[in-house]
Design a protein that fits this description.
With 257 residues, the protein is mainly alpha-helical. It has two domains: 1-89, no CATH class; 90-257, no CATH class. The chain contains ten helices and no strands. It has helices at residues 3-17, 30-33, 39-46, 58-64, 69-79, 94-127, 131-170, 183-189, 197-207, 214-255. The protein starts with a helix and ends with a helix.
Length: 257
C-alpha cells in the first residue's frame, strides 16, 4: 500500500466533512459556514464561542467576545484549508486571544479526543487479540505520554512566560528585566506531534489483521484524522503566528532596557 493511497484516504475523510473552501469575511454568518465544514464548530469552541449563534455574523460574534475579527478570520481560513491568505497586522493585545485558543485546544486534546481514542483502542483490543494490536496499544500509550509532556510544557512554561511578557509591555516596562527563558527555547523544544500519528494510522490500515472489528477500526481512524486535522492548524498557529509575535515582544522589551 503506497503513501499516495494513505494520503487519498486522508483527503477522503477530510472532504467528507468539508465540501467548500470558502474564504471567510467578517460579514459571513456563522450558521451558514458551519454546514460546509462542521469542524468549524470545534474551531469556534477553541475561541470560547458556542452554539447557538442564531444569525450572527463573524464580526458580531467577535465583537461580543472582544476578539480581533482579523485574527479569528485568519485562523478560520487556516482551519478551512485556505492557506494562501495574507497575514493580518496583529498587536500584542492579540496575544491573550491566541493563548486562550491554544489552551482550549489543549483541553480538547487532554479531556476529550485523547480519552475517546484510548477508549476505542481498549474496546478494539477486546475483540482483536493479535500481536499487532499490542503494538497499537503500546504506540498510543507512549505517544499520549509524549503529548502530555508537550502540553504540560506549554501550559506551565511557555504560556505563563508569554502572558508575563504581555503584562510587562502593558505596564510600560515597569520591573522590566531580562529573563533567562526565551521563545527561542520554545522553538527548539517545539515539535510536530501530529506527525507521529502517521505510524499509528499505518498500523491500522496496513498491518492490523481484521477480527470482525471494522466498525471500531473505522471509528478509531476517523478520530485520528479529526485529531490530526486540528493538530495541524494548532502547530501552524504556534509556529507561524505565536512564536514570531513573541519574538517581537521580546525585542520590544529588550529595546526598552
Amino acid at each position: 500500500m503506497s503513501f499516495n493511497f494513505l494520503k487519498t484516504i486522508h483527503l477522503i475523510c477530510h472532504h467528507m466533512f468539508q465540501r467548500k473552501k470558502i474564504y471567510f469575511t467578517p460579514e459571513l454568518k456563522i450558521s451558514e459556514i458551519i454546514p460546509d465544514n462542521p469542524y468549524l464548530l470545534l474551531f469556534f469552541e477553541h475561541f470560547g464561542v458556542t452554539l447557538p449563534v442564531k444569525d450572527k455574523t463573524i464580526q458580531a460574534v467577535c465583537d461580543e467576545h472582544n476578539l480581533n475579527s482579523a485574527l479569528v478570520i485568519w485562523f478560520a481560513n487556516l482551519f478551512n484549508g485556505v492557506n494562501n491568505v495574507s497575514e493580518p497586522k496583529l498587536s500584542f493585545d492579540d496575544t491573550r486571544a491566541i493563548i486562550h485558543y491554544l489552551k482550549n485546544s489543549h483541553e480538547f486534546y487532554s479531556h476529550e479526543i485523547y480519552p475517546e481514542i484510548l477508549n476505542t483502542i481498549e474496546h478494539l483490543a477486546e475483540i482483536n487479540h493479535s500481536s499487532e494490536m499490542g503494538l497499537v496499544k503500546k504506540f498510543f500509550t507512549e505517544y499520549f505520554n509524549e503529548v502530555t509532556e508537550h502540553l504540560d510544557y506549554e501550559n506551565n512554561v511557555v504560556f505563563p512566560y508569554v502572558l508575563d511578557l504581555y503584562e510587562r509591555i502593558k505596564s510600560s516596562g515597569l520591573e522590566n528585566k531580562k529573563k533567562e527563558y526565551s521563545v527561542v527555547e520554545y522553538r527548539d523544544h517545539h515539535n510536530d506531534i501530529e506527525e507521529k500519528l502517521d505510524d499509528l494510522k499505518k498500523l491500522l490500515i496496513k498491518y492490523l489483521p481484521e477480527k470482525s472489528d471494522r466498525i471500531l477500526r473505522r471509528k478509531l481512524l476517523f478520530s485520528l484524522f479529526e485529531l490530526e486535522y486540528d493538530l495541524n492548524v494548532h502547530s501552524q498557529i504556534e509556529e507561524h503566528i505565536l512564536i514570531p509575535l513573541v519574538e517581537k515582544m521580546e525585542l520590544h522589551l529588550n529595546q526598552t532596557l
